[in-house]
Amino acid sequence: MRVTALAMLISTAAAAATDARDDDRERRDAMRRAVESGDAMPLSQILPKLRGRIAGDVTGVDVERQRGHWRYEFRIIGRDGRVRDVYVDARSGEIEGIEEK
Length: 101
Prior knowledge:
Low-confidence stretches: none
Number of helices: 3
Largest sheet: 4 strands, antiparallel
Pfam families: PepSY
Radius of gyration: 13 Å
Region (Disordered): 18-39
Oligomer: single chain
Keywords: Signal
CATH architecture: Roll
Domain PepSY: 41-99
CATH class: Alpha Beta
CATH topology: Nuclear Transport Factor 2, Chain: A
Organism: Bradyrhizobium ontarionense
């Protein structure tokens, strides 16, 4: 993924955050606290790890808390044109699963 694509992703995420509903704001605040406490890695550390393992372009990012831990969900369009959801443990940065769409 090129730097411009990453910049667009970050600016899009920032714009979406501005318009977020209260529950989204609470989730972001909780995630920020998780990063500050070391319970989760920031997106800026996760993305390079993911890029090294999965070829393609990140077109979407979500974060959620499941079964007591934080998890990133990335939507990736592969070089082959296939769309995949990639689930990454936010604490370790390890891929938990890949679902082809």
